Structures are given as C-alpha cells and as structure tokens.
What we know:
The chain is α+β, with helices and mostly antiparallel strands. The chain has three domains: 2-19 and 171-338 and 360-390 and 553-725, Multidrug efflux transporter AcrB transmembrane fold (Up-down Bundle), CATH 1.20.1640.10; 67-163, 2-Layer Sandwich (Alpha-Beta Plaits); 406-545, no CATH class. The chain is built from 23 helices and ten strands. The chain has a four-stranded antiparallel beta sheet, sandwiched between helices. The chain has a four-stranded antiparallel beta sheet with strand order 8-9-7-10. It starts with a helix and ends in a 7-residue tail after the last helix. Mean pLDDT is 79; it is low at 265-270, 336-354 and 727-732.
Amino acid sequence: MFRFMQNRRMRWMLPGASMVAAAVLLAGVGVAVDLAPRVEADFFFAPGDPQLRESRELAERYPAGETLIVRAGAPDPETRGYLAQLDALGRSLDSVPGVAEVFSAANQDRRSPLWSRVLTPTGDEATNVVVQLAEEYDPEALAVEVQAVLDAHGRPDFALAASGVPLIVELIRRGLARDLAVFSTVALFVFGLVATLAYRDARLVAGTLLACLSASAATLLAASAAGIGVGLLTANVATIVFVLTLSHTVFLAANWRAAARGDMGGAGGRGRAAEAVARTIRPSFWCMITTLLGFSSLLLAPARPLRELGAAGAIGTAVAFASAFLILPAWLARGGNGRLGGRRQPGGSRPHAGPAAAEPGWPARLPALGATALVVLGLAAAGVGTGLWRLETDPSLLGYFDRSGPIRSGLELVDRDGGSSPLLFAVGASDGGRLDNMAAYERMWEFQDSLEADPATGIVLSPAPLLAHARTQPLARFLPVSILLGLLDRSEAGSVASGYVREDRREALYSIRMIEAGRREDRSATIARLAAHAEAAGLQVRATGGLYELQDRLGGLLAASLKIGIGGLLLLFLVVGLRVSGNVAGACAMLACLVAVPAVVLGVFGHLGIAVDIVASPAANVALALGVDSMIHIAMRARDLRQAAGPPSPRSGRSSREAWAAARTSLAKPVATACAIICMGFGIFVLSDFPPTRRFGLAVVLGTFTAAVAALFVLPALAHGFRRRGGLARGS
C-alpha cells in the first residue's frame, strides 16, 4: 500500500478519494437508512421470543384492545360546566383516527359498579376518560393527535394528562429520535474540537474525523442492509462505532508522531506512516478481536434490542478497524515535511523496539505506584463494587422520563390515580369448574376486592364488576350469571366489557393497572403476591401478561446478562491478555484492572440508586471494550521492549520494570487523549432529556476514566509485581 503511495499523484488522490467516499457513505445513510427509532409496544422482545409468547397468546385469547386513560382534573368534578368540558373533550378524542370509543362521566353513570371504579377511582379531584383504540392505528399519528386535543381543551381549571402503552412507547421513541439527532451531532463537534486541541495538526484531525464518520456511516448502511433498524439500543451504535474507530486512530497517530520525532526509525513521511501502521496494527487487531467478542456475546441474549446491538456492534467493530487503517494512513503519508504541531522535527532514527520516549511536554517517567497505593486502590474499588448488590435492573416505567419534565408529572398523576402499567391475569377455578355460576361469581368478587385493596394496584377490571354492571339493567338482577355473561357484549360498556371470559366459561381475565410511582418491591414479588390473592379466593392464575410482566422478565434478563456477559468477557480477555502480554503475570494484571471497570461503573450506580435500564445496560461492556484497548497497547509495547532488552535479572527483573515504565510513558498521551475525547463526547449525553441516554453516557464516562487510570498506573505496577514474585511468568 505504501509503495503505491510513493507516487506523488497518489499522495494527493488518496486523501481526496477518502473524502469522496465519506461523502458518498453519508449521502447513502441519508437516502437508504431510516434513522427514525423503532419502538414497538413489545419493544423488549421479538415476536418469536419465548418470553413474549405467553403474553401474546393471552392477548389473542382476550382481544380487548389497547386503551388510553386521560385524567381530567378540576376543583369540582360535579359541576355541569365540568361535565360539558368532559363531553367536548370526549367528542374531540372520538374524532381522532384510531380511536374506537370514548367513555367518561359525561356519557356513563359514575354510580355503576363498573364506571365508579374506572372513571372515579380516587374521589373528588378528577375523573378518568377511557379511550378505547381500534385494532389498527398509527402510533405516531395517534400520539400527535391526542396531544393536540389535550392541548386544545386543557386549561388551569381543567388539567389534562394521558397515559397508556401506545403513548408511553411513542414518547420513548421521540426521546430516542431527539437524542439521535441532537446529541450525536453535538458529540461529533466535541470529538472534533478536542482532537484539534490535542493534535494541533490538520492532517491528523481531518483523517481521524473522516475515518470515524466513514465507519459510522458504513455501519448504519450495513446494519440496515442486514435488516437491523434503529431501535432502543442501536440508536447509539453510530456513536459507539465512532469512538471505536477513534480508539484505533489515537494510537496510530501517537505512533506516527513518535516516528516524526525519530523514536521508531523510518525516513520521510511515507516511512513514518508505514512504521506507525506496523507498530499499531497488531495491538489494534487484538483490540478489535476483544470488542468483536464482546458484541458477539450479545447475540445469545434473549432480548431483541440486545441481540440487535450485538449484531450491529460486531459489524461496526470490523468496519471501525478497516476504516482506521485504510483512511488515516493515507492522510499521514500525504505530507512528508515532518511538521508536528507547526514545528519541523528532526529526522533521526532509533531502533524499532528501543526505549520509547514520552511526548514533548509530558513527564519522561510517570510516578510508579507502590504496594501500599495498590492496596488502597484495590480496597477503594472493592468498596465501590459493593454497590453491585444494590443495583436496580428493573426500573420504574416512569424512570424513562425526566423527573422534572411535564411528561413525567402528567404520567405520575395518572399513575397515582389508577396505575399506568398493565398486568394481565388469566384465572380459572381451582377445581377446574365453570365460572358462570353464583359460587364462581362470589370467588371472582373476593379476588377483585383483594386486588383493589393491594397498594401496588390501581384500576382493576374483571368479570366481577362487569357482571355487577350488567345486573343494574332492568330486571337483569333476576337473571342467572350464565345469561348475564352473554349480555356483556351488548351492553353500553361496548368493547370495554368484551373479551373477559372465554367461550367455554372456564377462564376469565383480570386486567390490572399497576402503580409505578414509589415502587420498592421487585415486580416478581408483587406478581407472586397478587397471584396468592387468587389462590386465597379459590382461583388459580393460569397465565400472566402485559407490559408490567414483560418488564419483570426484562429486569431478570438484564441482571443475568450483566453477570454472564461481563463474566464471559473477562475470561475471554484473560486469554487475550496471555497472548498480547506474553506471560501470565501481565494477563493477570490486565484481568485485575478490567474487573475494576464494571465494579466501579455498576457499583456507583448501585450506591447512587441509578437504575440500569435496557438502554444503559450495554454501557459497562462498551467501557470494557474501550478500556482494554489501552491495556493491550501498553502490554504489547512492554513485551516488545522487554524482548529487545533481553532476559531480566533473575532477582531484580529490571528489564521487565523498565519495559513497563517505558511503555506506559510513551503511550501516556494517547491513552489520556483517548480518555478525554471519549469522556467529553459521551459526557454530552448526560445533558439529555431522556434519562436512559443520560445513564448510558454516565456509565461510559465512569468506565473509560477508570480504565485509563488502571492502564497507566495500576497495570504496570501489578504486572511487574506479579512477575517479580515468580511462578506467574511465562515466556520472555
């Protein structure tokens, strides 16, 4: 490749070709890739996932459809003016495409056993408007139209707030779309600004940004061609790939600058670029392998967003490596004047694996940590890591929205009055008998009363209040339960009352809206307690479903993924550490440093009570992948220097100590530069209005800073300490 670049024309054409390629890739993304995030009602799982199958089957057995709850607050909901406002609101909502029926205190009897529970669950402060949706509707258009209606009818004395799965999902999608458009662009400018300040060389900055942009665009195109859309996690994949490419370019640029100072030999700009590639490509290759393994491990995850991130991340990892070593060297080889930061550098040469000098302006030797300092740091990391036992992987549904924002406050009002997250129970008689008799009716009422008395539940719909509502019709109280069940579908309750008892009359549905605010108990424990109420009433829960139950499953899956995924990555990195460091001491030192990364990130989250949701959960893996890069580069540089210096003294191990010290000194600036760029870039996400994006950015910043400190200070001291004690060394 570099012989080809010796042609003067090629030295100008290749950078130009990289600019054209980047422009074509970015244009291709604009034309061929749908950047609108895809978030569906079952956004946690794919249709074929076993975790979703039971919930889907339950929805098919009881096709009641989706509903929205609109809370209408007023000083006095009993006045005629309030009822007139409710009626006008209901008519406007009924005209929205996708809305089937609207029920409110303006068109229903609030004294009914059914509507007293649904429309006035909290008393005198407000009433609910139930919006029954059609079987097919456009979620985005529905959310826009419903919000427009609420804005048009809302006023200080008629406060309106809405909740429901379709609205919540659409609000999450909007948050992702806003962050993808705004923060990714801002992060790009931050990356470029910091790179400019760090490099002060137009070629480095231009080549680096072109390589990173090309990698991100190519990944989006390849992922789209593979059927991977922009979703809950893949919305951040472009930024992740940008940073992965940046990690390669930082070390490539550092080695090029070292060659410009004469630290690695070579003659002329083309020789320095070739020398930098030769010095960088081996450790970067192993960095790519470790990152590829990390993303590939997500392909086995049971949640669809994690699998999609794994596939897109694996594609992006390979693309990032190729982009960094195809584009940046062309820009580095274009020059040949040896300018570094605006000054001409001497062109002397040194042996390829000789002592590595520090960057100008950096200390010739970084301070080494003693045994006491290592113990103190280890105890500190262990203390922070105790937060792992307090880590929350099952956050509230309200936690997806900013605590101080209007969306969160409105959802909290609806949640407080009647719950916001649906939970479905399919129940049958414990003895397997039919439910269309008076004894079963009394058992269903007993279960209904116990559910309504539970502090975790809001509105509860079941055959019990529906049958009680049907009995309010003239002469209906004299009819048997079996006939009353047939009247439900023809009552004025319409679609709200349909689909709560199966045709064989041996199974019934309980639809419960769960209260999310202030939840302290695990969802699994809450679901088990509610199921115990059914057992006490002589009923048996045969199936569960709904968003609340899916969130419970997801929380367990995230906890398992963190344990298995991070544990598996650490074992894989141990094997890679043996290969890149050349001895057991270096590999064990790398493993000890890498363990600190998830311990600090997740431990801090646990101590601060910051939940790890599905968006933030891969951040520890990303931080590990970025952190191991610095360690691999330092370990391989130390190995090369150690081999060049010959075997160490049997007692002192002097060459080992000097090799590690020289390696970290020569790479201190690229490690610090990469850390600063990554932390400032992902730090932008902390300013997001979407809490999961904030948590993702904070986790990456914490992990990256921890990894950089461990790579520069802890890794060399541990590696030399392990080696000196003997028994851990292998190879040269």
